[in-house]
Amino acid sequence: MKFVQKNACFIALFVLGIGFFSSCNDKDIIAGKRDPGKPTVFSDFSPKEGAIRTRLYISGDNFGDDVSKIHVYIGERELKVVGANGKQIYCWVPGQTSTGKVRVVIDEGAGKTVDHTFADSFSYLKSTSVGTLVGNVDQNGNSGIIDGSFEEAGFAYPGWITYEPGSNCVFVTEIDRAVRKVDLAARTVSTLITNGQAGFTKMQTTTLSTNTDTLYLVDDNGNRSTPNKVALAYSLREENYRRVHPILWDVGAYGVAPHPSHGGLFYTVTNGTPVKKAVAAATGELVPKELYRIGGNLSTLIFFHPSGNYAYVMAHSRIYKSMYNWEKQELEPAIIFAGSGTAGDVDAIGTSARISRAYQGVFVKNEAYAGQSDEYDFYFCDQNNHSIRILTPNGMVTTFAGKGSPTPDGSKSGYIDGDPRLEARFAEPTGIDYDVERKIFYIAERTNRRIRTIAVEQ
Known about the structure:
The protein is mostly beta strands.
């Protein structure tokens, strides 16, 4: 009974994040330091199975309390060691783990280690789970543009995500403010570009070139009449994305998409909602060519299918489909493909579906469609419905993540990690991109001021 009480106290205080040293009145726990003159004992680990974010506890004796010297592995996958008190080690199981032996390595210094592998294996249960990558807020949910480590960094208004595989980083556009870089390997956040560079005033979105070494930047300018503002610019990986080069002047732009085949730029403008193409003038500079208009004054966005055969144009409660004319190398006038002029929240096909505010989206290959004419689903943020939704090639809209845990007031928004549909909640997600290799979605949330992840395991 005494052991159970001590163990329960340790676990509860870890979960609450208030430290176990202050409340568990046990001399062994308070001491916690490793004694190099005594043997290290490995008794057991629990649980024996679990999915991503499972809390794994290793029990024994003489572990020490310096987590920087303790390494835990399941097979070849290293776990995040959160704490240790001499008799217990506390870890998180990361995503993309596999079933395997649990191994503990403790650094004794002077090149010596204690290395133990348990006889039992940990069975990893594959799942899809929502987590939090980075973003610190105060008790009132406020933050700002704060550079630093993942433990320090903050965001003011993150609204757009671009994953860059070449350097394994994520670009986050702070709407109307700046472009930030999230270095996934170094676990740091830095500010690359701010308003004022290249004449920018209201940065909106970023998009990578087809060869992924150029970052295109879009500025709305808050301008609706004067066609001499910087609308499109670019920044290069070889310059560490620190310099900005204007390439097209217009009344402003909202979204840009390079054609997957030849890299030509197509973009959207709020004023009158035209879809335009950047074409080369006789002088060699890029100038606007209007292709068609959707109508109204909507902040539309554009996304090309990987084949280049068509593009989706997001227009608030509607998603248009615009076919690509390969002979003319232009997009043809679009038709409504999903949603309608009435905002709502209904999973259905075509114009029977209801969407509230369609924002950034990304095409993801679906292995179940292998051999079909279109093998990609389109995942997109529905800002006002606080969810991530899927648009299939035949026009079916379904909800993928968000609105999970019920609330007494019926609210759809919130901040909860976990199962995408049973637990997870978002608050105004507007940015989404996908790491194909690691099968991870990155989500930018305006209200929660965080970068979230959805790890998809198959």
